[in-house]
Design a protein that fits this description.
The chain is an alpha/beta fold. Helix content is about 40%, strand content about 20%. It has helices spanning about 40-45, 70-80, 95-105, 130-145, 150-165, 175-190, 220-235, 250-255, 255-270; strands at about 5-10, 10-20, 25-30, 50-55, 65, 90-95, 110-115, 210-215, 240-245. α2 crosses α3 and α5 (about 150-165) packs across α6.
Length: about 280
């Protein structure tokens, strides 16, 4: 049965949910989603572990007053409350991947393993957009500057859900509605405050000794795909896997594929051999 909790961290009450029993697996959402992006993965992982997800400040149902804060400290509060402080496997997408990397560098004893999906990595090589993406990027920047949140939301669905290399409108129905709702909440939220974890981590990836699985979609931005390959090469215990036909959010598009990859990886980390059957 899924349980819901409010976890206090500074001036925030982080809305969290957990399902299942066993080794803790904590899911960190992308900066264009909230914890709902992990719905299918929570249900799958709960069959063999304790699956935990939460909304960060500025997303979903989390309540907060603006303040300078550490996203890593918020994550540690979630682990303390929902996992009894046990070392956790972190599954992070995009900005969630950045937080997972920060946590592994600052608190290696508390991070058992990492699954990084299309991770943001400060200090990585700058994005270089192919000619056919220069126009859409400029349009997005103009919409953001004008404060046209509806247009920003639609453009982000085009670039991140359909994929920079995918066709416009490729993802339809409930998935598109979910994305627009999740990102719409984030776009309309008040600023959460400065991130105290800011700083380059790209040149420190080699310090992360935890096992890691790096995933990316074949329809994502070319520079993000290249970054993921670089991350997999720089982390000593990492394996990289491309998810064919998916864009920036494979957990939404390819839930069965991601479930299989998670089960195999978590099985290898925790020794639940029955998962291989």
């Amino acid at each position: 049965m899924c349980s819901h909790h409010w976890i206090v961290s500074g001036r925030a009450s982080l809305f969290s949910e957990a399902v299942g029993e066993g080794d803790p697996v904590v899911f960190l959402h992308a900066g264009i989603c909230d914890r709902r992006m992990w719905r299918a993965q929570l249900d799958g992982v709960a069959a063999y572990a304790r699956a935990i997800a939460y909304d960060r400040r500025g997303f979903g149902q989390t309540r907060y007053d603006p303040e300078d804060h550490s996203a890593v400290a918020d994550l540690m509060a979630v682990i303390d409350t929902m996992a009894g402080g046990k070392p956790a496997i972190l599954v992070g997408c995009s900005q969630g991947g950045r937080i997972a990397i920060d946590a592994a560098l600052r608190h290696p004893e508390r991070v058992r393993a990492l699954v990084l999906i299309s991770p943001t990595v400060p200090g990585a090589p700058e994005a270089v957009y192919p000619p056919d993406l220069v126009g859409p990027q400029a349009e997005l920047a103009q919409a953001e500057a004008a404060g046209d949140l509806k247009r920003v939301n639609a453009l982000k669905a085009r670039l991140f859900l359909d994929g920079a290399l995918g066709s416009e409108g490729r993802v339809t129905g409930g998935l598109r509605e979910l994305f627009l709702d999740m990102n719409g909440v984030a776009l309309e939220s008040m600023p959460a405050g400065a991130n105290l974890d800011a700083g380059s981590t790209y040149d420190r990836l080699g310090e992360i000794a935890a096992p890691a699985l790096i995933l990316w979609g074949s329809l994502d931005y070319p520079h993000i795909q290249a970054r993921c390959r670089q991350v997999a090469a720089l982390m000593p215990e990492a394996t990289g896997v491309e998810v064919a036909g998916a864009a920036h959010l494979p957990s939404l598009e390819r839930p069965a594929d991601i479930a299989g990859l998670l089960a195999g990886f978590i099985n290898g980390c925790t020794g639940h051999r029955e998962l291989a059957d």
